[in-house]
Amino acid sequence: MADAKTLIEQAYTAFNKRDLDGALALMTQDVSWPKASEGGKVVGKEEVRAYWTRQWSEFDPHVLPLAMTEEDGGKIRVRVHQLVKSLQGDVLSDSEVLHLFTVKSGLIAAMDLGDEVDSIAAPSAAFAHRRVQGE
């Protein structure tokens, strides 16, 4: 798991630095990624690039891995501290969430949101404020 742990830590570091190319270099061409702030998922590096670019234009999310455990089937569960701020610096969410990674051939093949009933159907609770803005 050491190599997978390092890979995932590098991905979080690149995400937090907004290093798109660095993060995408750690993923398979057909990576599957949840759209936590919108609901649904994206497939492929260019779709992840577009999603993150859009997300970062609306929010300032930062994730810090706290603990990693290896699961059956080569999955890695990561408990993270997730801090989501508005672009003006207001805290929108400060919580711990679970991410579940699938690593294949030394690259991230998929990330799913852990322990959420239907993680791809709706936005993550961390972004729930989005649905009520403007009401």
UniProtKB/TrEMBL annotation:
Organism placement in taxonomy: Bacteria, Pseudomonadati, Acidobacteriota, Terriglobia, Terriglobales
SUPFAM superfamilies in the record: NTF2-like
Protein known as: SnoaL-like domain-containing protein
Superkingdom in the source lineage: Bacteria
Annotated ranges, domain SnoaL-like: 8-110
Family annotation (Pfam families): SnoaL_2
